Structures are given as structure tokens and as C-alpha cells.
Amino acid sequence: MSRTDQTPTINMTITGTGSYLPCKVLTSAAIDARMGWQDGTCQSRYGIVARHVAAGEETSSLMASKAAHRAMEMAGCRPQDLDLILGACGVMEQPIPSTAVLVQEKLGLGRTGIPAYDVNATCLSFLQALDVAALHIQCGRARRVLVFSADIASVGLDWNHPEAAAIFGDGAAAVVLEAGGTGGILAQDFCTFAHGHDACVLAAGGTRVNPARGIAPGEDRFRMDGGKAFRVASRHLPLFLARLLRRAGVTMDKIGCVIPHQASALALRHAVENLRLASDKVIDIFALTGNQIAASIPVALDHAVRSGRLRRGNTALLLGTSAGISIGGAMVRF
């Protein structure tokens, strides 16, 4: 089968979604005051009104566990009913052990042996974990899977470069996937173009840049060449989407809801224009959440479900880009 052939549907259903936003809200007006800008500058420049910022006790695993409880409440299941826990954060809470392990403990499952591990594809981690979960369900290894994303962007921002700081927010979201039902993954695809690897970088925290080997100024902060990231992604996105539609056997007019990565106000506007998406079907919550890295897509998904914009039986397109540069998408029947 070629990458353009229609793919068989994986029968599984998203039975629950949930999200958690930190209590503290940082408004763009407050950033104007902090930066000494004229009132309204941050909002007009970046298209964002406010974003949530995690307090010290609001760790990634705490936020994820709260989102998971909300997803399980909607799904009507208990933590001990899970067969697999997949963490899908852009940046982990700590290198070892994984954030999924910490969430398993917070769900009261620390002695159960339920497998828990992380899948990382930066901003597209949720889509990749969704695919891993679907494959486990398809081959009968699991019947009920929890996938969560939680990110705290605020700890790695460099306010000397506000264009790479003001657009981010913190948050978490989770979904429960179950075998059977009326839902399914119609198609999934993922591409990486590593010649853009230096467009979005957080160098510290791995084996190359760390306290033992030294951290140069700025290496512990996220840096972004937004222009390069946009050029690489926009060059490939139209063909990527066309191939995903063919593989799903779906035409654009049959998509009930588009749930994109909330990368930035500009990126969302370009996506609608360049991909010819129906703007009334696009979930755009960027102005009130900012870019929440890997939590961005599942938080928007939870918003779509709870606001009634995504209903049972609808076909939803989940689509985004990430550091790498990578492009990912999934066509889902909710």
C-alpha cells in the first residue's frame, strides 16, 4: 500500500475528554505594563488576550492527573479500568522517570503494573500518542487507553525575545480511548523535515547541554525562528493535507470540525487561508490559551466536545506542526 492509498479505519472511540488550566491568568495588558509597551500592544501584535501560567505546585503530572479525572468522568470509567497510560508532553516534567509514571502514581495506580510511558514529538506528541494507542487497540493489546498532554511553557521563555515568549501558555488535557463503539481513526500521517531543526530549539535538559557539562547563556530558554518554521511548514502542508484526505477517503466538505494546533494567531489565519479550511469549522481558542505546546490540540479538542461543536458521528481533522520541523494529522470519527 502506498502512502496515498486509502487506509483501513481503526475502530476505537474517544469516550472521554478533559482539560485543566492553571488558576493564574497572565493578561496581555499585564505584559504591556511589564515590558513598558503602550496599552494594547501585546494583544494587537500577537493576537492573544490572556494565557494561563502554572504555579509551582501545578506540576505537569498534577495538571495531567486532573485532566485525566475529567476525561474518565466523561467516559464513565475508573483509573483501575485503564490498560495503558501514554504521556504525550512536549517537555517532560523530569528526564527520568517519565511523566506517565508520575501520572500513574497520582491516579492511585502505583502498585497496579498498568504500563505507563511517554511518547514525544514536541507539539505533535498528542497525535503520535493517539496513533500508538490506536495501534495497541487494533491489535488487541489494550481495550481502554488514557492519553494525556501537559506542558508548562512558562518555565522556559526568554522575555528578551517577546515574539517567542508572549504567545505561550500552560495547560493540560487528556482523552480516554476505547475499543469498539462508533468512532474510529480514518487516517493518520506524519512527516519530518530536519533541515528545519534549528528553527525551534530548547537546548538544555538533555545529554549535550546540562549542569554537568555546562549551560551557556540562553541555552535554557526556548528560541524560535518563526519565519523559518513557517516557510518549511507552509511549503509542505497543502500536499500533506491532500494526501491525508485521500487516505481517509474524506473530502473537505465532509469534515465537521477542524482542530488545529494553536501555534499562533498568524499561523491559524494562514492555515485557514492557505489550506482553504472553512473558518466556521475551525476551533480557535488561541486568544484565551496561547500556544500550549503538546497540550494545544487536546485542549482544543476538549473545548470542541464540551461546547457542542464536535458531536458524536462528526468527522474531525486534527492537524499541526512542531519543532523538527514536523507535520502531523489525524482524521477521526468522533
Secondary structure: elements and pairs:
Layout: E1 10-20, E2 24-27, H1 28-35, H2 41-46, E3 50-53, H3 60-75, E4 84-87, H4 99-106, E5 116-118, H5 125-138, E6 144-151, E7 171-192, E8 200-201, E9 223-224, H6 226-248, E10 257-260, H7 265-274, H8 286-289, H9 296-306, E11 315-322, E12 326-333
Parallel strand pairs: 4-5, 4-6, 10-11
Antiparallel strand pairs: 1-7, 2-3, 6-7, 7-12, 8-9, 11-12
Helix pairs in contact: 3-4
The coarse overall form would be globular
Number of strands: 12
What fraction of residues sit in β-strands? 15-25%
Mean pLDDT: 95
Following the backbone from N to C, one meets helices and strands in this order, namely EEHHEHEHEHEEEEHEHHHEE
Distance between the termini: 26 Å
Oligomeric state, counting identical vs distinct chains: single chain
How would you characterize the overall build of this protein?
The chain has helices at 28-35, 41-46, 60-75, 99-106, 125-138, 226-248, 265-274, 286-289, 296-306, and strands at 10-20, 24-27, 50-53, 84-87, 116-118, 144-151, 171-192, 200-201, 223-224, 257-260, 315-322, 326-333. Helices cover 30% and strands 24% of the residues. Strands 1, 4, 5, 6, 7, 10, 11 and 12 form an eight-stranded mixed β-sheet that branches. The mean pLDDT is 95. The protein contains nine helices and twelve strands. It starts with 9 loop residues before the first strand and ends with a strand. It is α/β, with parallel strands linked by helices and 334 residues long. It is globular, with a radius of gyration of 19 Å.
